[in-house]
């Protein structure tokens, strides 16, 4: 009795030695009709407007400033003066926030902004008084 390997090798030799001619059993028109029927079967269904994906924003969200913490001008200046005490005159004390409306895919605004009138930092104030006085 021959082993399974020898039978398998003889079988592969016969299949490789003779040419196989492929004859399509379905004509091209029938195949095209089958593909279009298949396309109709798996066609995307239109979703109702409540389930559609929303368009993404093209601009950034601008928050309402009424929700932010707000101070009267007199109190705000008092707080700003209190933060200036004990700091070097060259260090930054204020922050400036601008409201810009720009596109999300637009250019990035960064770095420093030059103000039309520069802040003068060359002032130095010296108070000379007794250490026990109320002004000190």
Defining traits:
single chain, 136 residues, mainly alpha, 3 helices, 0% strand
Number of strands: 0
| Uncertain regions spanning at least 5 consecutive residues | none
* Tally of helical runs: 3
Structural class: mainly alpha
Major sheet details: none
Strand content: under 5%
Query: What Rg is obtained from the alpha carbons, in whole angstroms?
Result: 41 Å
Report how far the terminal alpha carbons are from each other: 117 Å
**Series of H and E elements:** HHH
Query: What is the residue-averaged pLDDT?
Result: 72
Helix content: 25-40%
Question: Looking at the structure, what is the overall shape?
Answer: elongated
Characterization of this structure:
With 136 residues, the protein is an all-alpha fold. It is built from three helices and no strands. The protein has helices at residues 4-17, 28-41, 73-84. The longest helix has 14 residues, at 4-17.
In short:
With 136 residues, the chain is an all-alpha fold.
How is the topology of this model organized?
Elements: H1 4-17, H2 28-41, H3 73-84
